[in-house]
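Running this now, will post back.
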Amino acid sequence: GLLYFWQFPHFNSLSYNVRQDYCRAGYHMMSVTDIGLNARVALRNTLALVPLCIAIPFTGISHCSFSFYSVVVNTYFSYLAYNFYKDPNKQTARELFRFSLVYLPIVFGFLAIGYAFKERTGEEKHHGDGQYIKDLCPVLPHTAASSTLCPMANKQPETSS
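Update: finished.
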């Protein structure tokens, strides 16, 4: 969902600044045919990111603090999209586009931090647990389990005469 809603402000602001090139090439892009719609779509999708990011912790993917951090980032993203909507020009489009470049690393960084600090139930595993690593890779070198799980472990090396 994040990538879907992010793509519209990103590409709509980018296409606004290169709309003359699209026009010369004969492409009927939204930034050429309807500048107002281009800006409205960008604004609508940045606003959709706010409830989406608030809902993510309820899925169990991240800690509830992700909602608070993402609201700040999404509010600023929506503010830039609103500026682009109110006054579509090269400057507002460029500001929206540049922030869209750093938006995903910021939000996915918050998501990863929230994942690392979220509470886990008894059956849920975490990459820091030693047993989780053993479950992922049951064939570890120099273990008794490796000889039973790997048929090549019992094979004796051939000797040359």
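DSSP finds eight helices and no strands in the chain. More later if anyone needs it.
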